[in-house]
Design a protein that fits this description.
Distance between the termini of chain A: 48 Å
Strand content of chain A: under 5%
Largest sheet of chain B: 3 strands, antiparallel
GO molecular function (chain A): phenylacetyl-CoA 1,2-epoxidase activity
Helix content of chain B: 10-25%
Number of helices of chain B: 2
Helix content of chain A: 55-70%
Strand order of the largest sheet of chain A: 1-2
EC number (chain A): 1.14.13.149
Radius of gyration of chain A: 22 Å
CATH topology of one domain in chain B: Ubiquitin-like (UB roll)
Structural class of chain A: mainly alpha
CATH architecture of one domain in chain B: Roll
Largest interface: A-B, 27 and 20 residues
Number of strands of chain A: 2
Structural class of chain B: alpha+beta
Pfam families (chain A): PaaA_PaaC (PF05138)
Number of helices of chain A: 13
Radius of gyration of chain B: 21 Å
Strand content of chain B: 15-25%
InterPro entries (chain A): Aromatic_CoA_ox/epox (IPR052703), Ferritin-like (IPR012347), Ferritin-like_SF (IPR009078), PaaA (IPR011881), PaaA_PaaC (IPR007814)
Order of helices and strands of chain A: HHHHHHHHHHEEHHH
Oligomer: heterodimer
Enzyme class (chain A): oxidoreductase
Chain lengths: ~325, ~100
């Protein structure tokens, strides 16, 4: 590739005629709001951006299994245990859909996996917060999955075909995740005073981190413009955050709990929700690896990978043995 | 390339009807090699603009589950209604949930 497209899709080097034709076709497909498919020509920066975004998304699903998996053995009933297991299984599945989508861009799965385990790749900051009580399973389902859904629904129309298709599958499956979380909180809120307090405490801790899941404010989001031009991103961070706040403001009333944001109000003049200032210094610190659970999450991932090595080796050995048998027969 | 009976091998044809959608199995055809299979697939399965992309795969390369084992093989999701949003009736009617 002779193109250097850092800092936006502008071409700073001369394209070969084939590349120019590819670029023109790419531009046309994007302009028509159609989809780019794996074998199409695409700018290197588009490929790179998508590889980063999709793999980070996949890593988030995989690391996201941990806070909830920790509660499977302590779930308060067999029903809740089964539901939680089904949810964690879904997160694993979502990670795999996204890794397979990312592979269509040319980076092998093992490489993506290494990037996660060596700490080179990022994942959603929210999973670096601890899940302290059973009510946290409710708050994670309702707020964290709720924010994820608000983010993901527009991604179903992302310009890259395999990403959009993975997101369609994922969104379909996510719908139960948010509801089960909401119902955990609803039951606790209608339970004993101690249970209600536990539910409120979980909401208090997950409210701000879930608002931060949409990323920094638009005024401080340098890559958003290019992603929007490429139609990977359909709405800005702040637009999605606004939409989410508008939904949970109503839902919290049904829960009989409160959002820990006394300043929260709808500003009729601007038509926006005014919420508390979010701690972006903390956000950046957590993304950079200094959150409460970063080290623990990565270590758990590496341990799981290493502890599973014998299974992969055994499967490969068995496949090789069967292949030899077939050859002989 | 011919199979043991001296006939052309079978190929499975997958058609992508438009950008953004998956390739979907359309049917199969006989052809002596992959290139001919692709051309025949175009002539046979996309005469009315049904597709913008085609895959052909040698039928022998497709590993299929056993149709008789259907019950057992796919029984795991049975009785796991909680994997569906409709199981959670208390959130019924809550907006955006």
């Amino acid at each position: 590739m002779a193109t250097q497209q850092e800092g936006g899709g502008r071409l700073s080097a001369v394209l070969s005629p084939e590349e120019q034709a590819g670029q023109d076709r790419f531009n046309q497909i994007i302009a028509e709001d159609s989809r780019i498919e794996p074998r199409d020509w695409m700018p290197e920066a588009y490929r790179k951006t998508l590889t980063r975004q999709m793999s980070q998304h996949a890593h988030s699903e995989i690391i996201g299994m941990q806070p909830e998996a920790n509660w499977i053995t302590r779930a308060p009933s067999l029903k809740r245990k089964a539901i939680l297991m089904a949810k964690v299984q879904d997160e694993a599945g979502h990670g795999l859909y996204l890794y397979s989508g990312t592979e269509t861009l040319g980076t092998p799965r093992d490489e993506l996996n290494d990037q996660l385990m060596t700490g080179k790749a990022k994942y959603s900051s929210i999973f670096n917060y601890p899940a302290r009580s059973w009510a946290d399973m409710g708050a994670i389902g309702w707020l964290v999955d709720g924010a994820a859904i608000a983010n993901q629904v527009p991604l179903c129309r992302a310009s890259y075909g395999p990403y959009g298709r993975a997101m369609v599958r994922i969104c379909k499956e996510e719908s139960f995740h948010q509801r089960q979380g909401f119902e955990i909180l609803l039951e606790l809120s209608n339970g004993t005073p101690a249970q209600k307090k536990m539910a409120q405490d979980a909401v208090n801790r997950f409210y701000a981190p879930s608002l931060m899941m949409f990323g920094p404010p638009d005024s401080d989001s340098p890559n958003s413009g290019q992603s929007t031009a490429w139609k990977i991103k359909r709405f800005s961070n702040d637009e999605l955050r606004q939409r989410f706040v508008g939904m949970i403001v109503e839902q919290i009333k049904i829960l009989g709990l409160t959002l820990p944001d006394p300043d929260l109000r709808f500003d009729a003049e601007t038509g926006t929700w005014l919420h508390m200032d979010l701690d972006w210094v903390e956000f950046k610190a957590v993304i950079a690896g200094n959150g409460p659970c970063n080290a623990q999450r990565l270590q758990r991932r590496r341990d799981a990978h290493n502890e599973g090595a014998w299974v992969r080796e055994a499967a490969a050995a068995y496949a090789a043995k069967m292949a030899r048998k077939t050859e002989v027969a | 390339m011919t199979d043991t009976n001296g006939t052309w091998p079978l190929w499975e044809v997958f058609v992508r009807s438009s950008r953004g959608l998956s390739h979907v199995h359309a049917g199969s055809l006989h052809a002596p090699d992959a290139e001919m299979a692709l051309k025949n697939a175009r002539d046979l399965y996309t005469r009315r603009n049904e597709g913008i992309s085609l895959w052909v795969v040698a039928s022998t390369d497709i590993i299929a589950s056993d149709p008789d084992a259907k019950g057992m093989y796919f029984e795991s999701p049975q009785g796991k209604d909680y994997r569906h949003a409709t199981y959670y009736t208390k959130s019924e009617g809550v907006k955006h949930l």
